[in-house]
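User:
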Amino acid sequence: MSETAAMLEALAVRCKTATEADRMLDADIFLETGEFARRRITDARMLNRDYVRRLAAVYGVPGFTSSIDAAISLIPEGCYWHIGHGRTRADEPLGGAAICAPGSIEALAEAEGATVALAICAAALMLRAFHAADRTPLITMPAKGRA
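Assistant: Predicted structure:
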């Protein structure tokens, strides 16, 4: 497994086991998924964990673990997703998420978490880890039908 895949998988596990939103986890997701590059942050002084964690403390990074909208931004373009909130058993997590390829009902990745946002983060990070491990590209298609 590549270092990137291992880091993404470790972040997914942190999301699955978190009991609430976590700004330091948001910062680590922001750094490890390359979201800073998508937002055109290129200053080398800003691309280190300490700086990004300080930024997270003042809400300078998206609240992936607290916001469904921010968490959904981690899902690759072209994928479809299903999310749910609720329990069928008392010992079950409250949030659930599944990410599917277009035209398929089979989940590419799925996860449960204490909240829906944490479950989405975990599933999206597991999908990214899978693709990083085998070096296949993430699905990239027009965003038709995305909510």
